[in-house]
């Protein structure tokens, strides 16, 4: 499944090459037809995060303070971890936490 992932608010610094925009292909789990946000977060942790995954992931979800949008819609309105993604969806992760 081809997806566009965008990272902002400093989250891009945790990724390989510190790039904000990523065009990725995520395959459904064996025996599954769909990719959920839970699957995507696991994929991101294993394939894009280069350091300090605890700044992005807490348990099997994003850490508090990370805003997640699926096609410009808050993921809480889409089903959170169980939200099913579709081909060419755009998923944005923005950290709202800043040091001071």
Automatic annotation (TrEMBL):
Cross-link annotation Glycyl lysine isopeptide (Gly-Lys) (interchain with K-? in acceptor proteins), location: 100
GO biological process, one term: protein urmylation
Primary location recorded for the protein, binned into one broad class: cytoplasm
Entry-linked Pfam families: Urm1
Source superkingdom: Eukaryota
Post-translational modification: C-terminal thiocarboxylation occurs in 2 steps, it is first acyl-adenylated (-COAMP) via the hesA/moeB/thiF part of the MOCS3/UBA4 homolog, then thiocarboxylated (-COSH) via the rhodanese domain of the MOCS3/UBA4 homolog.
Family to which this protein belongs: Belongs to the URM1 family.
Subcellular location field: Cytoplasm
GO cellular component: cytosol
Functional pathway: tRNA modification; 5-methoxycarbonylmethyl-2-thiouridine-tRNA biosynthesis
Keyword Repressor: no
Residues with the 1-thioglycine modification: 100
Keywords: Cytoplasm, Isopeptide bond, tRNA processing, Ubl conjugation pathway
Keyword tRNA processing: yes
Name the record gives this protein: Ubiquitin-related modifier 1 homolog
InterPro entries cross-referenced by the UniProt entry: Beta-grasp_dom_sf, Mopterin_synth/thiamin_S_b, Urm1
Function: Acts as a sulfur carrier required for 2-thiolation of mcm(5)S(2)U at tRNA wobble positions of cytosolic tRNA(Lys), tRNA(Glu) and tRNA(Gln). Serves as sulfur donor in tRNA 2-thiolation reaction by being thiocarboxylated (-COSH) at its C-terminus by MOCS3. The sulfur is then transferred to tRNA to form 2-thiolation of mcm(5)S(2)U. Also acts as a ubiquitin-like protein (UBL) that is covalently conjugated via an isopeptide bond to lysine residues of target proteins.
């Amino acid at each position: 499944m081809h997806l566009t992932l965008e990272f902002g608010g400093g989250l891009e610094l945790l990724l390989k090459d510190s790039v904000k925009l990523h065009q990725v292909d995520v395959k459904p789990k064996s025996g599954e037809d769909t990719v959920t946000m839970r699957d995507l977060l696991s994929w991101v942790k294993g394939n894009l995060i280069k350091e300090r995954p605890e700044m992005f992931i807490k348990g099997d979800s994003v850490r508090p303070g990370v805003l997640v949008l699926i096609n410009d819609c808050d993921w809480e309105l889409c089903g959170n971890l169980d939200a099913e993604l579709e081909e060419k969806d755009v998923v944005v992760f923005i950290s709202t936490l800043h040091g001071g």
